[in-house]
Specification:
By secondary structure, the chain is mostly helical. It has one domain. It starts with a helix and ends in a 34-residue tail after the last helix. About 17% of the residues have low confidence.
């Protein structure tokens, strides 16, 4: 679905333009990170196949960068899901699962364990 189609679909349902902007911005960031990851994975594979000690050593940093990008993608998707979560995370009378929440306040840091720390 293209950005304009998303805007038309969500805009027609009365979704706040700030939420829509946050949604679109997050997906642009996710796509950029996934594109970077593709490049990193290709370079990691080339270095691994070359078996040159310097290239293999460089992979340590590349893999760290890849892991950090993956964490950022997970965080972006978590933020996106919070935009569309129900207020009490359960449907109730007068509410629905698709209820839109405003984005987290600026400076708000979510604390979560990734199991990778």
């Amino acid at each position: 679905m293209e950005g304009g189609e998303t805007a038309a679909l969500l805009g027609s349902s009365g979704v706040d333009t700030k939420v829509l902007h946050s949604f679109q911005t997050s997906f642009v960031q996710v796509q950029s990170l996934l594109d970077q990851n593709r490049v990193l994975i290709n370079e990691i594979n080339q270095n691994h196949e070359s078996k040159v000690p310097g290239d293999l050593s460089r992979n340590v940093g590349l893999i760290r960068e890849l892991n950090n990008n993956i964490r950022r993608v997970v965080d972006l998707y978590a933020d996106l899901s919070s935009l569309f979560a129900a207020p009490d995370d359960a449907p109730s009378e007068g509410g629905s699962v698709g209820t839109v929440r405003p984005p987290p306040a600026a400076g708000h840091k979510r604390i979560r364990s990734t199991g990778l720390d």
